[in-house]
Amino acid sequence: MSHNGHPASTPRTSWKQPRLLHFRLPSLFKSHTSSSTSSFAAADRAASTASGSEAAPTPDAASISSAVPLTYPHTEKELPLAIQIQNLQGSDGAIHEDYSEAHKLFRDHAGHAPKGVLPQTINPDEETVPGIVHPGSTGVIYCSDRAMANGFNYANSHDWANLGQGAPEVGEIPNAPPRPTSIDMPTDSLEYAPTTGVKDLRTAVADLYNHTYRVGKESQYTFENVCIVPGGRAGLSRVAAVVGDVYTSYQIPDYTAYDQVLSAFRRLVPVPTALDPENHYRFDIKQAEKDIRTQGIAVIIASNPRNPTGQVIKDKELSDLVELAREGTTVVLDEFYSWYVYPDGDEEEDYGKSISSAAYVDDVDTDPVVIIDGLTKNWRLPGWRICWVIGPKNLISALSQSGSFLDGGANHPMQLAAIALVQPEYVAVAKVALQKHFKMKRDHVLKRLHELGLEVDCPPTSTFYIWLNLAKLPAPLNNGLTFFEELLKEQTIVIPGIFFDINPSHRRNLFHSPCHHFVRLSFGPPLADLDKGLDAMERVLRKVRKEGLRNFGHSYKPSLTSPIDLTSLSHA
Ligand SMILES: Cc1ncc(COP(=O)(O)O)c(C=O)c1O
């Protein structure tokens, strides 16, 4: 234990703790402050907590809270200490992830040690299986593991608020068609289904897209343009498996699985581009054109609407993107949130519209536009694992091949049951109900965040995610990983932003990630769960006001080492 009662941090096995901060802090503080003794002491202590140092004095809570008028929202003037600490995390690099307990926990997890920069931490378990390289835990698994370490388990999951949940609520919602409760299982359905899917479902999906997006267009989708796949990630993997030896571009932040799925297929070369927060994370078509010319990008992949920012490419921008495809670049659009687009107005006629690139395709067999969607989000049936890829016939035939060695096709009885759910009449009712209900939840969460002083820079116009910037909170709460750990203590799960960065393990200092200050909040769960999570945030912020920052940023539970049951947490 350290002198201040915090557990001494676990020594790193792979490199030495930097001790730089002890020497640099005082001079830094002199240059930033008007020499308030309590601020100095508090900041010094904050640094000592983070570094595990024995050197700095410990101020009492009262001295911190009197030095830090923690009202939210706050201005720079109101939060001198917070600003001072944030300054320390600035470009001079004086504060590093090594001083953060939450980041140490992350680095200690298998596969997350910095790669190619510092010696890799060896996990003895991995070495017992010759030739196996641990891919590193995905965001979902890491967050689940940390939740378990904090007492989450299957039996008590209802006591927790899971705002990390990347799935919509699956129960009844007002005015939606009733939830399916049983399925038929004719004897034929006990056979394998074709790897491209059951023909009647493929036809029904093609008809739905023609009905929704292609009325009056000469070129229409047929079953040959549709491949049924066992889930969205299976669709992505099937596509990635048939991408050749080419540069494939994706953007940050985006759905976490792209990084892992793309890197699993070693022929293609993933090329990330960072989206600009100043520009509301907009997809920059001019930049894409330039990248195609200068870097030879052959394939672009993006979620649209976008997870985690809740922004959407639509109208002319979407039509320009499809045009870009026609000029010779394959554009793969993951349209899983295509119904989760919220109208500005609240009249009946404002609801029921969805967004798909299918509306801008000229020729369904020659425009290289690939759409992935399915029952997971729009139909609120993530457990069914029935999804589809839509594109030119030749692509579908290639996907049939990759499906035959990757996944063997989607569940046969569920495909048959899905046919009734993709009928236009069913969809029309389900879509309106979904948009009304989720818009209500979005507005509710945004209002409560505003009341807590947590302003959302970029409110979501689509999806069920809020990309929340914590930069204005006092350190260490202003980074996603620490905020996540603090909420776990309050039985609430959110997803730290760094999981939406490309391969964060490759960064020398996670504090430099563009997603460092962010968390993703999901308003997928039912309203009562959302309130439970927001209440937890309120408690954390109240505690800061009352006790200052001394109780934050440390004393986290060690990760579990035994195999853990992840079945009760849903996907990110
Ligand atoms: C953008 C996006 N695409 C695909 C998926 C995964 O879909 P599935 O659960 O069907 O694999 C998700 C799930 O979170 C997602 O957010």
Automatic annotation (TrEMBL):
Q: Which cofactor does it need?
A: pyridoxal 5'-phosphate
Which keywords has UniProt assigned to this entry?
Aminotransferase, Pyridoxal phosphate, Transferase
Using the record's annotation, list all stretches that form the Aminotransferase class I/classII large domain: 159-523
Matches recorded under CDD domains: AAT_like (cd00609)
Q: Does the keyword Cell cycle apply?
A: no
* InterPro entries assigned: Aminotransferase_I/II_large, AspAT/PAT-like, PyrdxlP-dep_Trfase, PyrdxlP-dep_Trfase_major
| Alphabetized SUPFAM superfamilies for the sequence | PLP-dependent transferases (SSF53383)
Q: Which GO terms describe its molecular function?
A: pyridoxal phosphate binding; transaminase activity
| GO biological processes | amino acid metabolic process
Recorded family membership: Belongs to the class-I pyridoxal-phosphate-dependent aminotransferase family.
Question: What is the official name of this protein in its record?
Answer: PLP-dependent transferase
- Organism of origin is Athelia psychrophila
